[in-house]
Amino acid sequence: MDVIERINTRRSSRSFTDKEVDQDTIHQLITLGTKAATGSYGQPWAFIVIKDKSEMHSLSQEIKKYLLENIEDFPYFKQYENWLKNEKFDVFYGAPCVIAIYGKTSSHWCTYDCSLAAGNIMLAAKEFGLGTCWIGFAECIFNTWKFKIKHNVPDYYKLVSTLIVGYPDEKPQKPPKRKPATIFYEK
Length: 187
What we know:
With 187 residues, the protein is α+β, with helices and mostly antiparallel strands. It is 36% helix and 15% strand.
């Protein structure tokens, strides 16, 4: 599959098989992520990989509880309030793997660099027959000092992206038609 086809057919996956993603594949995805462009060649990224199902379940419950208790602080999640109240809703959608991407805050470009790394991982995952989805819900917990201490993330790193990765248990729908890009041309 070429990169143009990969870009045109990539979809977020929210349903996964039970098949594990092996360590070598995860390592390859992260390595491909680090091939992304980086401002001043800073390479400010760091990664956490979580594959423990019980930890992922606990984190999902903690995230839902926190967001519901503080929903006024997260107006962009208000539309998902019923999901968060649903005991069966898993913020990680049953994926077998979570990859969290952190950026070193001493780099002015860490958010951009780490977002580009996330994009590389999402596109590369298709090559391995994997699906991915960026999980915005996770930010409220994955960027806390408590979580960072547990996972040995120094305080001078901030969370940029949380991706779920796994073998999709669904056939991706055709991508919706996008609005034309707004382009401002020089006069």
